[in-house]
Structure formats: structure tokens, C-alpha cells
Amino acid sequence: MQESTPSTAELHVRDIMTTRVLTVGMDDSIMAAKKLFDRERFHHALVIDRKQVVGVLSDRDILKAISPFVNSEWMERPQDHATLRRRIHQIMVRDPVTTGPDETAASAARLMLAERVSCLPVVDESRSLLGIVTIRDFAAWAANALPERPSGDDTG
Length: 156
What we know:
The protein is an alpha+beta fold. The chain is built from six helices and six strands, in the order H-E-H-E-E-H-H-E-H-E-E-H. The chain is globular and about 55 Å long.
């Protein structure tokens, strides 16, 4: 986020987006992506092909794709471990809903709610990656921009 917090009316996606984005390739393994998520502690990675955003991968997508018996000493079978060798393109969300840096933050938030997504890749006209805006980015903006109520104020 930028140092000064713009007012709500002038707040744009570029003001709140995160520019440090995890990226993965379509042919990367689920195991490699899981290690990346575990190490970086992010919830979303953008799938890039030929310098363009072609998909979104979430930590929830990975959890749904792998067997619950992976790394279970007594219960893991060969087919369980094989789920980690599947490729990202098999589980990613294709053609994700995106936004641009000049869109208002309010319109991006409405889009996220309407599409029921927790992140939007921020791209330029050629779908090249510029950043990502997530629910967490909106929460961070709100925590910094909105006034705190005095303690003991239970109105509202």
C-alpha cells in the first residue's frame, strides 16, 4: 500500500494492490505449488503462460486436489502420493476475472462480491501481470483508513 491513504472516492486498485505475487506455471506439479504456498504463506498464486495470466490457484484448490492420506504413515497408498504429481492446469481456475490498476477499489470490491472470488489479478490491456488485489488488501486499507471508535462506544 502507498504511504498516504486516499479517500474512498479516489481510491483505486493500484493504491491497495499487492505487487509481490506468487506465480506458477501451468505444468508445475501440485507438490511444487504446495511447497511454495507453505514457504511463502500466501493464499493465492497466479498461473502464468507466455507472460499472461491464464489462471488462479488457491491453497484451497490444492487441499481439495490432494488425498487426505498423503504423508499418513499408516494409511498412504501409492495413488494418494500420486495426487501430488498432478499438474496445476488440472486444478486451476481458468480465465479468471481480472481488474485493472485504474479501476476504483469500490468497483473491484463489487466485482469480487458478484463473482464470489477472494482475489482479482491486476493486469494491463494485454493481460500481463501487474499485481493482485485480495480481501486482505481491502481489510488492510480499512484498518489504516477508517477511524477507530473510542473504547466503550457500543453504538452502531
